[in-house]
Inverse folding.
């Protein structure tokens, strides 16, 4: 009997029970989505805050504030405000004060208003992902909303414990705001690469100085005195090699750089026995006292890596072959006359401008299934 | 026919009244393929962990007979290993002091066979993202951990974030497939000779224990790379490593047990989309007598039931 009733219940048309209220004869009158973020003509911080203000002013009871905050968090990148603490504060301000504070131990223990607490935690997490550090004002706001026993407060305190510890940990300092100018960015990158040798001089040249150049662009080139000497000592019959482009990341910015690499000097093998006293040589000299003060001829420098001697590092505006040719000519002009007699080989992979990054998401499951079915 | 109706009914419920209890009971009663989207949101079982892999099992199931056959094949090598172990126990005296300032290499990637002690994983392995990575020999003859990090999230409605690549050493073991641990108690500094691309990487030291509560304990620290063609030597004291479980930093921090290390790994997940290259010459250990810090992170006394909950 019960089965019969249930079967009848299930067999009756669901549209009769559920859809009737929403159905309309005219399709234009059906429910549409209102998205205040979408309708903004300009996407910037002012308009973003305007939408938040609009939501606050629309309804005293602020119905749907959790949904609004989630929608607003998802739109942050679009408006370019994902790194702005003020905007996050404005979103926290949307939550009502006092209502979510637990009043007894049971409420405190069993997560009072879980949706709202989770929403605030997700907001804090997005701040963390975007490397935005909260401040004490934010703490006060969260205390007023959730009370000292709230989960968002715990998240906040954890953030305030860890984030300052890791904020300035990197041994290679980068300014808060990376420069927009590509030349300045390339200079920062080359500075970072050549920080191994404090003697390195970084120079910015224009390729227009070379008459034969086709690309009119800039070259950021770095060379130290030691590298100049190493280049001068290169054998003239063995070619130097220009290698690249290699990537260096400055936060999310990528800079392409190129290397001029020479041969490694032959290792000098010292087979003399230091304990053999039968034939003691006169010491070569103690600087300032006796003998000559020149340093020994072979000296292991940092530039002599095991895959070649790095003679110079550069980044150019276009990363093209022609601009690299101009770089070699400019190196020759400024202090490396030997380059006119040493051949240089360019072993470059395809210029980076010809690379394409796949934009669309490859379908994961469907394509695999299709392939399997074909097999 | 009735099933069909039931499904439309479920759809109605899904769209109009998101009642989780009802949805769950309904999914139990019908066995149609698309009960899956009803269970939106990740479900966590917080009482215990059922497997060390945490649901990412990739092992092939083989029959008991096949298992037995494989076991017999490996018996000879295992016995050899056991013989070596006994020999070592009798002959060698344990090392009591590490030479200060000298680096003892654990892994030196100078030939292709040395790379086999590491495995790589990335999110595309389990259809959870689009990153790719591998650990090969570089043109300079060193280990090269490289790939493409992609933070795009697959549109399956389940995954919120994506983008990681990782390499991890294989579990150290004794004869007869007994799990062993690295004993690093003589040392206090991790030394890496690397050549990176300016990105920051994460060093992971796993200390899995017997109980499931420790299976996901990994001690982390950041490895900053300079970038460029010059090699750099990074020395990181053990005291700096912070405890995380499943990637979340824990409130109650301790330094790791130096004699209970099970895995060492490096991962790349800095949310920057693009290619990454990390060339590694060696990973070693050093005893630095001037470093007498026990643990780098101070702990505070808080109200009851705030920390560790």
């Amino acid at each position: 009997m019960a089965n019969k009733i249930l079967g009848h219940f299930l067999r009756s048309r669901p549209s009769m029970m559920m859809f009737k209220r929403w159905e309309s004869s005219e399709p234009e009158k059906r429910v549409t989505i209102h998205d205040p973020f979408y309708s903004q003509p300009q996407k910037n911080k002012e308009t973003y805050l305007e939408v938040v203000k609009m939501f606050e002013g629309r309804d005293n009871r602020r119905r749907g504030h959790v949904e609004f905050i989630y929608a607003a968090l998802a739109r942050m990148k679009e408006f370019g405000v994902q790194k702005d603490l003020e905007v996050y504060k404005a979103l926290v301000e949307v939550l009502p004060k006092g209502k979510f504070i637990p009043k007894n131990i049971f409420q405190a223990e069993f997560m009072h208003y879980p949706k709202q607490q989770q929403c605030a935690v997700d907001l804090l997490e997005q701040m963390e992902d975007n490397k935005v550090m909260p401040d004490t004002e934010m703490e006060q706001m969260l205390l007023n909303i959730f009370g000292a026993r709230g989960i968002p407060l715990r998240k906040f305190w954890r953030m305030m414990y860890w984030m300052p510890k890791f904020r300035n940990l990197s041994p290679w300092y980068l300014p808060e705001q990376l420069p927009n100018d590509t030349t300045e960015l390339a200079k920062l990158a080359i500075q970072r690469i050549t920080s191994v040798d404090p003697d390195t001089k970084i120079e910015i040249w224009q390729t227009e100085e070379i008459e034969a150049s086709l690309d009119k662009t800039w070259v950021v080139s770095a060379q130290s005195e030691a590298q100049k000497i190493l280049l001068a000592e290169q054998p003239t019959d063995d070619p130097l090699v220009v290698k690249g482009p290699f990537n260096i990341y400055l936060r999310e910015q990528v800079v392409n750089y190129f290397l001029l690499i020479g041969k490694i000097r032959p290792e000098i093998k010292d087979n003399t026995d230091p304990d053999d006293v039968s034939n003691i040589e006169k010491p070569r000299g103690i600087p300032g006292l006796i003998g000559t003060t020149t340093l020994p001829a072979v000296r292991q420098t940092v530039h002599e890596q095991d895959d070649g001697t790095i003679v110079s590092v550069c980044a150019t505006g276009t990363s093209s072959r022609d601009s690299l040719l101009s770089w070699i000519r400019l190196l020759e002009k400024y202090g490396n006359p030997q380059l006119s007699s040493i051949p240089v080989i360019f072993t470059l992979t395809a210029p980076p401008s010809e690379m394409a990054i796949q934009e669309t998401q490859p379908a994961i499951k469907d394509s695999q299934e299709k392939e399997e079915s074909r097999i | 026919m009735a099933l069909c109706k039931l499904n439309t009914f479920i759809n109605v419920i899904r769209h109009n009244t998101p009642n989780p209890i009802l949805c769950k009971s309904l999914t139990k009663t019908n066995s149609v393929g698309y009960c899956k989207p009803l269970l939106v949101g990740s479900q966590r079982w917080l009482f215990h962990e059922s497997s060390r892999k945490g649901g990412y099992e990739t092992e092939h199931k083989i029959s008991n007979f096949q298992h037995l056959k494989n076991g017999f094949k490996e018996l000879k090598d295992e016995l050899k290993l056991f013989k070596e172990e006994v020999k070592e126990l009798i002959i060698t005296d344990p090392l009591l002091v590490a030479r200060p300032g000298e680096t003892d290499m654990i892994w030196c990637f100078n030939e292709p066979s040395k790379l086999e002690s590491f495995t790589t994983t990335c999110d595309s392995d389990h259809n959870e993202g689009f990153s790719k990575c591998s650990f090969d020999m570089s043109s300079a003859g060193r280990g090269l951990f490289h790939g493409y990090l992609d933070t795009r999230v697959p549109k399956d409605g389940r995954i919120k974030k994506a983008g990681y690549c990782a390499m991890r050493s294989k579990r150290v073991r004794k004869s007869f497939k007994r799990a062993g641990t690295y004993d690093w108690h003589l040392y206090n500094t991790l030394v890496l000779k690397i050549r990176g691309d300016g990105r920051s990487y994460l060093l992971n030291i796993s200390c899995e224990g017997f109980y499931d509560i420790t299976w996901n304990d990994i001690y982390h620290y950041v490895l900053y790379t300079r970038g460029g063609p010059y090699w750099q030597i990074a020395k990181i004291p053990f005291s700096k490593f912070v405890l995380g479980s499943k990637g979340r930093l824990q409130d109650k921090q301790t330094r790791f047990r130096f004699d209970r290390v099970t895995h060492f790994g490096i991962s790349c997940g800095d949310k920057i989309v693009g290619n990454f290259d990390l060339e590694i010459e060696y990973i070693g250990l050093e005893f630095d007598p001037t470093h007498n810090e026990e643990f780098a992170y101070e702990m505070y006394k808080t109200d009851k039931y705030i920390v560790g909950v």
